[in-house]
Amino acid sequence: MSRVLFLANPYDSSASPILGLANELINKGQKVTFFSSDEFQEPVEGIGADFKSYKADLDVFQQKKSDESKSGLISALLEPMKFIDDIVVQIRGLKFDYAVFSPAYPYASIITQLLGIPKAQFGVAS
Asked: How open is the CA angle 37-100-43, to the nearest 5 degrees?
């Protein structure tokens, strides 16, 4: 059984297909950990995947209501290691065989390199 890390951008057009791929892998006996924004928790857990959420102030996909605070995307661009460290800390102790992510996912290459695992970019034909 492989253990797969999904790094998902819920506002990307690939959100539904990437969730569908995770579901297929689970149906084939794979163990899936799915990293996404809080609004994706129910669909992710609904397919039987483990859900991990971005830390609220680093969520690059969350739209802030206040102009006073930096959006998650700006924070991730200005301080990428905070974003990367948050993910790595949350999955510490878990071993993955590979990671799947959409082309628009920030820092997937760095995260997979830190974890020492292969990556599989999941694109959607338009």
From this structure: 40
